[in-house]
Every structure is written in structure tokens, then in C-alpha cells.
Amino acid sequence: MIKRKKEKQNNNPFYDSTLKKRHASAARFKKFTLTSLLFSIAFLSFFLFDIVGKAIPAFKVAYIQTEVTFNEKSLDDTRFAVDKKYRDLVSRAWLRDIPSLLKENPNFMNTTITTWVLADDQVDQYLKGHHHKLKENEITFVENLLSQGLIENKFNAIFFTKGDSKIPEYAGLYSAIVGSVLTLIITMMVAFPIGVMTAIYLEEFSSDNKFTRFIEININNLAAIPSILFGLLGLAIFINLFGMPRSSPLVGGLTLALMTLPIIIVSSRAALRAVPDSIRQAGYGLGLNKIQVTRDHVLPLAFPGVLTGSIIGLAHAMGETAPLIIIGMIAFIPDAPTMVTQAATVMPAQLFTWAGMPEGMYIEKTAAGIVVLLTILISLNTVAIILRKKFEVKW
Amino acid sequence: MSTFESRKRSRELNEKLIKLALISAATISILTTFGILFSILFEAIEFFKLRSFWYFITGATWSPGVIGSQFGALPIFAGTFVITIIALGVAIPVGLGSAIYMSEYASATVRDYLKPLLEILAGIPTVVYGFFAAITVAPLVVKIAEFFGLEATFNSALASGVVMGIMIIPVISSLSDDVIRAVPDSQRKAAFALGMTHGETIKNIVLPSAMPGIISASLLGLSKALGETMIVVMAAGLRPNLSWNPLEDMTTVTVTIVNSLVGDFEFNSPETLSAFALGLILFVVTLILNMISLSLIRKFKEKYKVNTL
């Protein structure tokens, strides 16, 4: 059998003795490409797993049930509101809010109420099995409370309703979320009209001359310029030259707008280009002029594509940090800004600040903030994809 | 008749105004580029009035904030170079391999699922990568180095370089995938007809044809690595360190820019202005890389008459 095969091979003038080797090499090559793809996917899964694993504990936080006394003395120094044994175990920041709690409920005055008080971050970290600094006697006390059911992990609402704090258990993402919203409103108000108008000019009105080509090269370059350089632009021009307030959503929004512009222009141009010429010809045939054709026919048809591109640009701007650090949007912001000229911080910048803190609870909160940020970004991108699928016109 | 005339005139005026508005919108992008260039250039010139340009380029001591401060950026350039090389060492093989698999081997349905997955990598904010590099990858590098009896710092160039490389994978894979798919099928069929295996066809026919696009993608990845800020700010070191050992800490151009601007120096001090001098170098280098990359891709488009790239 083998002999006959060998003979056959010898008689075959086209037989290539290296064929087996060549096939093996082709298979190896395929394996290499598959491995590299799997590497990317494996990394993505490891990364998500790691971040979510770190983030989950932060969505729960320890509370201690104890008696809180509301009287003049505890108003004067809020540490006296709880029993001496609890003083180092409950959150100082939570106690500091007692006066405002009394303002809301004046009938609490001169009463003692048993309630759930936010625990100190060290207690919380101890219960989560992380690194902590509790003393021996405190640990036995906490264990004791735990066995009586007087310590409970509750949903961490503070994380979503409070601003930044120097006290880890009281730090939240709220003021950064507001800062992000204000900044992105400015960004979109500037970048969307300018981006779409540029795209309309380049696709519908311009002829292929040097000026147009120069603009095109510029846009392509702008898309690839490192984002940190936009920060230098914002610092030198918006803050130093125009005197706009440092750390404000106004400056941040304008800087991000210039960065988002190329994304919106490129996707809007693609959307306009996808509208077939017959639509335009039909419009001209009915006696419309160029502006009417563009405004009433081409633009509405291209709008889903324009919107998709803008949402992707928005998501991009939302995750950007480097230029905002340069213009000072990493300030400590405990209260949410109400105006675009006030000092503010944005979500990624807040995460950056927290990531540099030594306390374990900040690290946990950074991971939780990342999960929040990624959820928003993925939802935005999903909306963009759905919009495109739903309104896409097949010509 | 006269009302008709005036209506026509007002409409023409209107048209002109709209066109003017459109042109001015388009000019914004030019203004931005020049705004960046000049704002950086003027401050950089201020810096070079205070300190020598030659020492800035070739000097090996970077010591801002002390009396007799020196601004020799060589260790900063070296650190940037080492981290960038590590990043590209990860990103080019993995990105190109992924692109080849997606464009040559994967079926259309598999591709439809895989491409968005890679795009998720592109959509992750860099601050998130930075956190991951600093909290997870850097300790891992230290542990692995310990296993081999080596000593690594907690802000090693290797950790930030590898994570940066992963960030760049989608930049390279997405453009390479488009370029490989733009290579006409007739070339593949001709190669098959001559008895080449699929692997040989890709290596000898498809990749050489797609090479301008692949180089263009790699240059884009290179420029992205040079300008990347958050990963290195969070995971790489602050110490200018002239060394080739990737397990040591080193700093980069972008880290130094951030640090000199976040510090409490006067705006006109050489400490702050040095950020703009470094920014100028970064701007010029990335601009040149982008220009080469764009012209390569344009040539590719003209050769194969594709306009989807």
C-alpha cells in the first residue's frame, strides 16, 4: 500500500515533496492569527472580570445600628451624638451631617433615636476582608455587633448622591456626574452644529480645490493629534488668552468639542455621501435650489447617520481625561456645580483622583465608578447602533 | 415684478449667507490645528529664551523645581521610546494577527461578532486602562519578575507598555482588516490557481499588497502610543531614568507635561514652559507620523481604487 503510494508520487510530475511541510506551515500561521485574536478577547474578559470583581463590594457599604442622641451638645460637637464605644467605628462625615438632618426634621431635637449609622471605612474594609487598621479590641466589638445583627451591608446610595469627600466612605460620584453632563452639553452644543456644517460644506457645496483639500488634511490630522495637546491649547488660549475660568465645564467643554469635531465631521460626511445623487437630481428637477435640496431632502435622509456619529463622538468625549487634567478639572469638588463657569470635575477625572488615593475604599470606589462609566458608554454605543439599524435606508 | 426681483435678491443673499456660515464652520478645524501649533510654539519659544534648545534635546539631566534646575529631556525621550517599543511589540503582532484572522479565515457571521468585541477595547477610556495597569498588571509584573529572580518596581515600564499595547490593538487591527479586505480577490484566486496554500497566499501575496496600509496602521498606532497620557501617568514612573531595563520605572513626555502643569509653578517659570517645549516635540513628531500614514493610505486607495477606507 505504502509502496504503491510512493510509486504514485514518483510518477506524478506535479508532486511536491515539501507539500506536507507547507500545509503544516499554513496551519501554524492560521493558529498564530487565531491565537492573537483570542489573546485580545481573553484580555478583555480578564479585564472586565477583574474590574467588576473589584467594583461589586463598593455597591454595598456597612451600616451600624446604634442610638443617636440629638441635643445641644451633639450639635456642638457631632461626635457626642453616639455612644463613646461607637465613636471610632461610625463615619465622622455622616455625623457631621446631623445639623442638616435636624434642620429637615426639627422634632428630632432632644430625642434619642435608634437608627442605622454609616460605618467608618476601616470597619467596612474589615467586613469585606480587605486590608484594615482596626485595633484588636475594636475587632472583637465589631464581631460582637455582627453576631447581634447590628451591622449590616446596605446598598451604597451615598456613592450616587454625594460629591467627592476626603473621608473615603462618604465619597460619591454625583458631583462628577453633574460636571460631566455640563461639560458634555457645552461640547455637543459647539461640536454638533460646527461638525455637521463642515460636513455639509465639504460634501455638498465645495468644489475639489486646494482649500477643500487643505481642510480635509487638517481634519484627518486633527483626529490623530494626541489629546493632551488639546489640553495645552485649552490652557494657552481659552484660559490664558480669553481669561475663561480655570477648571470650569465651559473650558473643558470647548476643549473636548475641538477634539470631537473630527469624529462628527467624518461620520456626517459618510452619511451625506450615502444619500444617492438621484435624490438631489429630483430636487433640482423640481426647481429647488441647492440649499433647499440639502436642507429638506439630503439632510433628513442622512440624519440617522449623523446622529450615530455624534453619539459615538459624545461617548469618546465622555471618557477623555488627559486634556481636562491640563486645564485643571481634577479639583476637589464636594458639591455639584450648577453653572458652567464654576469649578467642576468629570467622571474619568474623578476616577483618576481616587485611583491615586492610599485608602482601599477609594480603590474600590474607582472600580465601581469605572463600571458606571463603562455602562454609560456601552449604552450610548448600543443606542447608536440601534439608531443606525432602525433608520438606515437601503438604497 | 419688482417684488419678484427683491424676493430673488433676498434669496440669493440668504444663500450667500448660508454658504458663508458653512465655510466659516469648515475653517474652525484649520483654526484648531493652527491654534494648537501657535499656542504651543509661542510658549515653547518663551522656554527656549530661558534655556538652551541644544541642552534640551541632548542633555541627560532633568531636574525642575530646584535651584540651578536643568532641562535635558534625553531621559524623558528614552523612557517614551522604551514604553512605546513595548507597546508596539504587543500591538503590532496581535493586532495584525487578529486582522488577518478576521479578514481571511473567519466566516462572515463570526466576523460580525468579533469586530464589535475588538471595538469595545477601542471604546474603553484610557483612564480605565491606567487604573488596570497600576492596580492589576503592575503587581503582576513584580510577582512574575520575582519568580524569575529579577527585581521590578511597582511602576515598571513593562506594565504600562503592555497595557498601552493592548489599547492600541484595535487601532492596528481595524485599519489592517479594512486594508486586507480591500486587496482584490483576483490576487488570491491567482495564487490558489498556482497551487499556493492559504498561508502562503496570505504571506506572499496578500500581505505585501496590503503593506502600505499595514505600515500606515502601525504608524498611527505609534503616534497614539507616543501621545498616550493616562496609562503612563497612572502606571509609569515620575523619575527621568536613562535606562533600557523595562522592569525599572521611567517617565515619558506626556507624564512630564502633566506634572509640570499640575504643579504649583508660575506660568512663566521654565518649569511650566518646559511642558510646552515637550508638547512642541510631541506635536511635530506625531504630525509627521500622521502625514506619512495618511499619504501611504491614500496611495493604497488610489492603487486599488477603493474609497471605503
List the helices and strands and how they pair.
The complex is a heterodimer of chains A (395) and B (309).
Chain A: H1 2-11, H2 19-55, E1 60-70, H3 72-76, H4 92-96, H5 98-104, E2 111-118, H6 121-127, H7 136-147, E3 151-155, H8 158-161, H9 174-205, H10 210-224, H11 227-241, H12 249-274, H13 277-285, H14 290-318, H15 322-326, H16 347-355, H17 360-391
Antiparallel strand pairs in A: 1-2, 1-3
Chain B: H1 2-50, H2 53-58, E1 62-63, E2 70-71, H3 74-105, H4 108-123, H5 126-147, H6 157-182, H7 185-193, H8 198-227, H9 230-235, H10 253-262, H11 270-304
Antiparallel strand pairs in B: 1-2
Helix pairs in contact in B: 1-11, 3-6, 3-8, 4-6, 5-6, 6-8, 7-8, 8-11, 10-11
Binned, the helix content of chain A reads 55-70%
What about the largest sheet of chain B?
2 strands, antiparallel
Pair with the biggest interface: A-B, 87 and 87 residues
Query: In terms of structural class, how would the helical and strand content of chain B be classed?
Result: mainly alpha
Question: Strand count, sense and closure of the main sheet of chain A?
Answer: 3 strands, antiparallel
**Largest sheet strand order of chain A:** 2-1-3
What integer is the average pLDDT of chain B?
A: 89
Q: Strand-residue fraction of chain A?
A: 5-15%
Rg of Cα set of chain B: 25 Å
- Amino-to-carboxy terminus distance of chain B: 52 Å
State the separation between the terminal residues of chain A, measured CA to CA: 61 Å
- Give start-end ranges of low-pLDDT stretches of chain B: none
Query: What general outline of chain A do the C-alpha atoms trace?
Result: flat
State the order of secondary-structure elements of chain B, H for helix, E for strand.
HHEEHHHHHHHHH
Strand content of chain B: under 5%
